[in-house]
Amino acid sequence: MDLAAVLLITSVFLVLALILLTVSLMRNRGTARELEAALADESGARDRAALLLAIASAVNSSLALEEVLNVALTHAGRIMGAVAGAMYLVRTGKTEMYREASYNLNTRARGGMRKINEEPLSSALSAMRPLVVKLDEQTAPGLDTGGHPQHVLVVPIQRSGQLMGAMELYLNAWRELSEDQAGLLNGVASQAAIAIRHAQLFQAQEENALTDELTKLPNRRHLAQRFLQEMQRARRHHNAIAFLMI
Amino acid sequence: MDLAAVLLITSVFLVLALILLTVSLMRNRGTARELEAALADESGARDRAALLLAIASAVNSSLALEEVLNVALTHAGRIMGAVAGAMYLVRTGKTEMYREASYNLNTRARGGMRKINEEPLSSALSAMRPLVVKLDEQTAPGLDTGGHPQHVLVVPIQRSGQLMGAMELYLNAWRELSEDQAGLLNGVASQAAIAIRHAQLFQAQEENALTDELTKLPNRRHLAQRFLQEMQRARRHHNAIAFLMI
Description:
Two copies of one chain form a homodimer.
Chain A: H1 3-59, H2 65-80, E1 84-90, E2 96-103, E3 113-115, H3 121-127, E4 131-134, E5 151-159, E6 162-171, H4 179-210, H5 220-236
Antiparallel strand pairs in A: 1-2, 1-6, 2-3, 4-5, 5-6
């Protein structure tokens, strides 16, 4: 057999091997790309779960209503990069929500009111999920730092199907919510719902402990508590204190 | 140029190309393997975070101490595949812990006692982390289903460095704890610590609301509550009821 024939056969084999290798390289690249995408998904999901866990711990770490509201609100606001936020709670038997906490607003933290069946609340509350709504000039709040954000992300807070309140997160521009963000906000809202309920139950029990059932007047326990407080205050400020019994 | 020379040069190029391709294929395979390992890590971490979040929600969903204890205990037991479990709580000013909840034990849920400075608690409590300890025949508990597990996984429950109690998870065999498992158990323990503290505060406040501060006797609120309960019970069982005022 001559050299040319041997070389020809070798070349043909080499070309075949080359084709096979190229095909498997391409397939491998595809797998690597798929794996990379899956990895990005997974680490996103892990980050969200870890974030939600941290928020759940923070929200549930107190039985004081004001603290619970502020922690839930600022965490939700931070997730969405909101310039300001407010937390509204339903009072039993009312069709209004009252502002119980806020940050970065130039008004008092408490005191504002929103009707449940009017915008900006109604669309989000009837959809029962986080929703971005445009505010008109009248309802746009003033910021501590100046400016009036024209968009609000409304996050309903509910517990076993019952509406407890809503968070309003003010945005400088309209924004589409990704499914991940909506899921995260719903998670924060459901953690907040439990923590708020517990804080309310504790507050009610505390009020019970300090008032007389029949007359609703402060009781002996209240007297002891206030007396101690006033004693401590007088001592702190080096004031005199008088106790008058009629 | 003759054919042999052309074929030879082609072959040489082909061999070079083959080597290059093989090298990049190998590198790609390495990347894919690394990605696969990273993916497994990530999804493990995501599963742990999601599990801990679910447990945090379950543990924090009640203010009733008994429920909090049972939920935390059974969740921790399920993670470790424990055949039985018990929850001990420190009473203030005591060097003992008392059993306040348990599952699958043939004794009463409440009532048992452990000295903090004696085994099986002391090694785990001084290490302040979950630890598997061997039980002697005297301390090995009896199971509902028969048998006496000889190993116990002790999980200390602490809050801001203060010991609140410990979970005992009974195992049929000695087991090395992985770092992930230890982390998960610590997470459950710290969630349980907060929920237990809140339940205790609520219980204390409830007791305050139902007793007179001076005499520690049940007050008017307690009377109203019990009266309603007894009325309902009588109605349910179609019994007569008498109310005696002295």
